[in-house]
Amino acid sequence: GKADIGVTGLAVMGSNLARNFARNGYTVALHNRTAARTRALVADHGDEGSFVATESPEDFVAALERPRRLMVMVKAGEPTDAVIRQFAPLLEEGDVIIDGGNAHFEDTRRRERELREQGIHFVGTGISGGEEGALNGPSIMPGGSAESWQSLGPMLEKISAKAQDGSPCTAHMGPDGAGHYVKMVHNGIEYADMQLIAEAYDLLRSVGGYSPAQIAEIFHTWNTGRLDSYLIEITAEVLAHDDDATGRPFVDIVLDQAEQKGTGRWTVQIALDLGVPVSGIAEAVFARSLSGHRDLRDAAHGLPGPRAKALHGAEAAAFADKVEQALYASKIVSYTQGFHQIQAGSDTYDWGVDLGRVAAIWRNGCIIRAAFLDRITAAYRARPDLPSLLSDRHFAEEIGAAQDDWRAVVAAAAAGGVPAPGFSAALAYYDALRAERLPAALTQAQRDFFGAHTYRRADRDGVFHTLWGGDRREVDAG
Ligand code: NBP
Fold it and tell me: Which residues are part of a known binding site for substrate?
């Protein structure tokens, strides 16, 4: 029989996805530019299911059941275009190319448009969960035509992670680039989550006076509550680990410069274009880039500032509870911002993304999987047109209950000279949203002063300009 699906690009992600399909009963055609990888996969794991190893693009395409489903798992960027150029001429109308790489959604939109002219469905697909997820069940975020989802959906549902209620962690996100866009924002939120956790650690250590091993215990406890998540869990493991060579806490021997591959940066770039305030994600991206500026940091090392005085005993424990509140409240804000960005992309590109569905497929398999996502899913199910997560009654209540502690933690960070850009940006966003009036009035007035940019009045309709350089009369500028 012919193969149900083919995977080309058999590095770690492609191999594991191919094995996942095979373990779920599908016959999988295999192909890789360098044939040795294909042979190695069959030699090491051929007994896990039904594989058809091929060495030429022609044999690979010929091995596939029609309409063909061909999954591309090569390095994102130019290699993806090279592979499409190689395979598209061999395909026929109705066939489906799935790109599971970390593509920029604008590239996905271009590729989809070009292939559509040829009658080929191009499905740009976000996949999260790393190597382990690819093998045992990732969260899968496919875009592309509704028709492609008909042919592909059941297979993706089968290999994806399952939420606690048994539903698959995959769903059609929307046309063309919607899937890769949602994956991009997922990664942006992941950056924000990681930054908030790092700030919590830093504060527990320098203000709370706890050791990494003690903080591991604290995170471990938090992981049994509302912060229950993969990232909190692995944080506890990292903090509990001691370096083999020196016996010191592992976190103390790692160079304090965080790198990035680009999806967080993309999220912020697009947010700027769309005018969406994703300050939590932006602070996370900037915190990583700041960490990498060793020269600037060395030059600034002697600048004056306080040194946090460590708390003890019951005071430290009380502070740890406050940090939990601050972390949870800031997390609500960063998800609020991330979902706003998905909504904005969906509106701009006319994708019709269902935000509740996004929350539902992030409940398991992906890096940001968390009990929290269940809550977001419920919020959107209760009210599909929820204007913002902060308008959900439960989240509003929780953030209200957390805010005193949240403020105390941000104040302690400022007083102790501990950078907490994520916590403070989240709090500023919260306070700005709830403010009755913003100083944006003054900003707009300044704009009118130096650039005659006009303004609207709070008390009546119309557009106005004040003759700042003259007699300061207000004139109608409508
Ligand atoms: P890599 O991103 O390291 O890519 C290696 C694969 O690309 C190999 O199969 C290689 O073939 C192939 N390739 C390259 Br490089 N240039 C090619 C070309 N011009 N023509 C054909 N094939 C080419 O693999 P990965 O880490 O498994 O990731 C695959 C994709 O999945 C990437 O887009 C990545 O961003 C995405 N992703 C990764 C993760 C993760 O956790 N690693 C998670 C989610 C998504 P060769 O064997 O002949 O060199």
Answer: 102, 128-130, 186-187, 191, 261, 288, 447, 453
Tokens describing residue 146: 């509704």
Q: Whole-angstrom Cα distance, residue 181 to residue 263?
A: 10
Nearest-CA residue for ligand 1 atom 36 is: 101
Of the candidates 175, 72, 67, the one whose C-alpha atom is nearest the C-alpha of residue 120 is 67
Q: How far apart are CA 453 and CA 456, in angstroms?
A: 10
User: Ligand 1 centroid vs 37 CA: distance in angstroms?
Assistant: 12
Name the 3-class secondary structure at 5.
strand
462, 332, 449, 447: which is closest to 391 by C-alpha? 332
Nearest C-alpha neighbor of 454 from the set 445, 366, 231, 124? 445
Structure tokens at 36: 């040795």
Mean pLDDT of 131-135: 97
pLDDT tens profile 200-236: 999 999 999 999 999 999 999 999 999 999 999 999 9
Mean pLDDT of 269-297: 98
Distances (CA, A) of 239 to 206, 286, 291, 292: 15, 23, 20, 22
pLDDT in tens, 59-97: 999 999 999 999 999 999 999 999 999 999 999 999 999
Secondary structure (H, E, C), 347-387: HHHCCCCCHHHHHHHCCCCCCCCEHHHHHHHHHHHHCCCCC
Residue located nearest, by CA, to atom 34 of ligand 1: 101
The residues facing 52 across adjacent strands are 29
User: What is the residue with the minimal CA distance to atom 28 of ligand 1?
Assistant: 13
Bind-site residues for NADP(+): 9-14, 32-34, 74-76, 102
Give the tokens for residue 362. 């992030």
Q: Cα separation of 35 and 62, whole Å?
A: 17
Which atom of ligand 1 sits closest to the CA of residue 100?
A: 31
With the C-alpha atoms ordered 378, 382, 387, 391, is the resulting torsion angle positive or negative?
negative
The model carries a pTM of 0.97
Whether residue 478 has pLDDT greater than 90: no
Give the residue-averaged pLDDT of 172-183. Answer: 98
Q: In whole angstroms, give the CA distance from residue 406 to residue 389.
A: 18
What are the distances in angstroms from CA 185 to CA 266, 338, 355, 410, 453?
A: 9, 6, 12, 26, 33
What's the CA gap between 386 and 355, in Å, rounded?
9
Rounded distance, CA 75 to CA 173, Å?
23
User: Which atom of ligand 1 approaches the CA of 103 most closely?
Assistant: 33
Contact of 53 with 39, CB cutoff 8 Å: yes
Atom of ligand 1 nearest to the CA of 101: 33
Minimal CA–CA distance to 87: which of 96, 77, 78, 76? 96
